[in-house]
Structure formats: structure tokens, C-alpha cells
Design a protein that fits this description.
This protein has about 350 residues and is an alpha/beta fold. It is built from ten helices and ten strands. It has a single domain, classed as Rossmann fold, CATH 3.40.50.1820.
């Protein structure tokens, strides 16, 4: 998500609900903190995983606007080894944004983990951290390190079966993590043609400035990534065509057919599709999806509630056609589950 006002996840103004629901099968959930070796970028990480426990079920990540996911907090993980999927939220978002997808994946046997990226999350808007865009892929690598090393967090992880999924700026993050190389110069030149004004408007805030790209233009990849899914990403036009052509990781690119303004899918997700190898990548544009259709389900009356607090931001609960968000989620999850089943089976 690329515009601060349009990407808020409605933080402290809404208290977490403790509503109880019944799950089709048990999902364990825990939150943990990962210290930074240098000490300046600790990570808050949320983890969903299969469990055989039968403890109380609560709706994690729920508030007055968004539905949560039924799960058992701090449950014991199962003893089986599982594939891992790491999630990356958009600009201004949080671990909650793709919780609905995490639930679908755990029901099929995956362990799922999502960090809050410092500087670009609802819970940490530090300008200094936001300008260290290259740290976002590293955040996901740190999450992978932690889960592979410590089975008490979510059980045993199969190190050869790891995937990454990201929405908006998270889509950029996972694409870089899987091997695409960013060029500050290429992105800066492209912005002069106004191809993607919404993405370009955030360039200075994200540290994409002339002469400042030594870390950002470096290799941000993690060789353990075996599959990648991008959901309506932004900043795609900074990836070099050469690195995309050499991209060897299976990729599923999903774009939103309804443009919310100044960030058309054909110039962002479509740019990836045009440059990635056709043998290992696929592109799907969902005609009635908007950028925020990939976020969690909104409760009745959510738009009015948001508009009352921050006029104009009710768009986060709007979609682009006659189908509701739940139907769009079903299509997206079906695409992702089928893709991952081929690339990194859950067990």
C-alpha cells in the first residue's frame, strides 16, 4: 500500500475484540519479538500454525472495523514438519492485513509468519526506518532464521520449502527477496515519465533518492525462497529487466483490475509479468478487485465508521464490482493454494 492515508489499518482508535468463533480445524497463534543483533531494528512477528490443542478460540487481529481470525493463542504446534510462508504487509499496514490468507494456508498445513516492518507499519512510523527500504527483505530473512532455528515457535520448518507473499509494498519486498534487483537510477528516470505517480510520490520517504541507493541497489535476495506471490505491488518499475529475466523462482503475480488512482496494475504488476520468464511465472488480473481488496474482511458499517474518523479513508473497505470481498478472497486464495501446492507442498 503506497499512500499513507489510504493504507492505515486503523490502529489504537479501535480496541481488539475478544469475540469467540469456531474454526474448521485448530489454528495456533502467537506473537514474538525478534531482537536485532545491532539493536536498532527489533521485529514484532505474528505466527499462525497447525495445532492439535483444543483450548479457547478467540478472534485474533479483530477490531471494530475488521474481522479477525479464529485461533488458539500460544497453542502447542503439531510435531509434523511444515512448509513456511512469510507475509509482508503494505505501506502503513501490519501483520493483520493478510491474516485471512494466513488462516487459509494453515488449514492446508502451512506455517505462516508476518513481521511488522519498522517505519512502514501502523505501529512504527519512524521516518528514519521508512527510509531504509532495503531492510524490508532482510526482515523476512530474519523471520525465516528464527522459525527454522526455534521449533518451539511454530514447530519444525522444512528449510527447502519456504515461500513469500506480499501486498503492495510487501509485493515489492518479496520480489526483491526472491532475487529481483532494484535500481534507484532506473526508478528515478521512470518517475520523470509519471508512469506511476503514487509510487513515485513516496520515493524520498522510502530513501529512493539519487546517490543514495548503494544498499537498496544491492543483492537483497534469500536463496531459501522457493516461491513468491505478489498482490498488486508498487515500485515494480525500479526492478531491472535483466534481473527479472534471470528470475528463477516460481512466481504468481496478481493485480487489481480497478485502479484506485495513479497506480494502474498494468504498469506495476504488468511490468513484472512482461519481464519475468513465462515458463516460471503467471499473471492474473482480477477485474473487480481494488488495491485494498486483498486486505481483511470489513464488518458492516465499517465504511461509515472510518469516514467519521478520517474522511476519505473508507476506500479501504470498498471493492470494485458486484462481488463482495469474501468472493474475491476465495478466488485469490484458490489461486495461491494451487500455486503453492506445486511449488512448495505443505508437507
Amino acid at each position: 500500500m503506497l499512500k499513507p492515508l489510504l493504507t492505515l489499518v486503523l490502529p489504537a482508535m479501535f480496541s481488539i475484540s475478544i469475540s469467540v468463533a469456531q474454526a474448521a480445524e485448530a489454528i495456533g497463534f502467537r506473537e514474538t519479538e525478534l531482537p536485532d543483533a545491532v539493536g536498532d531494528r527489533p521485529l514484532h512477528v505474528s505466527i499462525w500454525y497447525p495445532t492439535s490443542d483444543d483450548g479457547p478460540i478467540v478472534a485474533v487481529g479483530e477490531n471494530r472495523v475488521f474481522y479477525g481470525i479464529p485461533a488458539i493463542k500460544n497453542a502447542h504446534p503439531t510435531k509434523d514438519a511444515h512448509s513456511l510462508v512469510v507475509l509482508s504487509h503494505g505501506y502503513g499496514g501490519s501483520w493483520r492485513n493478510l491474516g485471512w490468507l494466513a488462516s487459509e494456508l494453515v488449514h492446508r498445513g502451512y506455517v505462516v509468519a508476518a513481521p511488522d516492518h519498522p517505519g512502514t507499519t501502523t505501529f512504527n512510523k519512524s521516518p528514519a526506518e521508512a527510509a531504509r527500504l532495503w531492510q524490508r527483505p532482510h526482515d523476512l530473512s530474519r523471520v525465516i532464521d528464527a522459525l527454522v532455528k526455534d521449533p518451539s515457535l511454530a514447530g519444525t520448518i522444512e528449510p527447502a520449502r519456504i515461500a513469500a507473499i506480499g501486498h503492495s509494498l510487501g509485493g515489492w519486498t518479496v520480489t526483491a527477496l526472491a532475487g529481483a534487483r532494484f535500481s534507484t537510477g532506473l526508478f528515478t528516470r521512470d518517475c520523470k515519465t509519471h508512469s506511476s505517480p503514487r509510487a513515485c510520490a513516496l520515493s524520498a520517504e522510502l530513501g529512493i533518492v539519487p546517490g543514495g541507493g548503494s544498499e537498496l541497489d544491492g543483492d537483497l535476495s534469500d536463496a531459501r525462497i522457493g516461491a513468491v506471490v505478489s498482490l498488486d505491488l508498487g515500485l515494480a518499475r525500479g526492478f531491472t529487466p535483466e534481473s527479472l529475466a534471470a528470475f528463477h523462482v516460481p512466481a504468481l503475480i496478481i493485480g487489481a483490475g480497478v485502479d484506485i488512482g495513479d497506480m494502474p496494475a498494468r504498469l506495476e504488476s504488468g511490468y513484472l509479468a512482461a519481464n519475468l520468464p513465462t515458463a516460471t511465472s503467471s499473471y492474473v488480473e482480477i477485474a473487480d478487485a481494488m488495491h485494498f481488496s486483498f486486505m481483511q474482511l470489513c464488518k458492516p458499517g465499517a465504511v461509515a465508521l472510518i469516514e467519521e474518523e478520517t474522511p476519505g479513508d473508507g476506500i479501504v473497505c470498498k471493492d470494485g464490482g458486484t462481488r463482495d470481498r469474501e468472493a474475491i478472497h476465495r478466488q485469490v486464495s484458490d489461486l495461491i493454494i494451487a500455486f503453492l501446492a506445486r511449488a512448495i507442498p505443505p508437507k
